[in-house]
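Sample pair:
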Amino acid sequence: MSSSNITLGNNDFPDLPDGEVMLALQNGREKALDELMKRYKKPLFNFIMRYTRDEDVSYDILQETFIRVYNKAETYNPACKFKTWLYQIALNLCRDYSRKKKLQSLVSIDTWLGGEEYESASLHEILASDENIENLAEHRQMLKLLESQIDLLPHKLKTALILFALENHSQEECARILGITPKSVEMRVYRARKTLLQRISKKI
């Protein structure tokens, strides 16, 4: 199956839970994939975009994610929440991309966090702390510095920060996606914030 085969269309599953739609796909009803794409294409693209900050790469990863949903449909366990399984596939692809990617020039903070095209939050909302880091939001140059440091965070800290702070997933949902405990999510987000504060304090 190639990415050119994935198209959105009319569906027969508007009222079914995700898990049942996935079971229909397991049973050979290929239109079920269209329904799953209709439900998750936009939010999943937003997540991938925030990780890669490259629109073309993000679209490729999005397409590959749904290709894998189709090709690996028989491996889906109905006891697992479909959204968790889907995001785990995308997260693995993002990690693979990150391992292969060389550091590239930064894109605009508006592309990553702003504009009408993407659901977003300001960095001062994401990283607000007792150290009053929200003051950085007043300075575009500082925002670009902060963006670059987020991009350089270790994968585990970066993904926890994106899922929890940018994507607004609960700690419990982040934990399911990342395969860790909610407490571990909390600690990774905390460590991400503290790491950013320490690194930025050395550069300003």
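The two ends are 50 Å apart (CA to CA).
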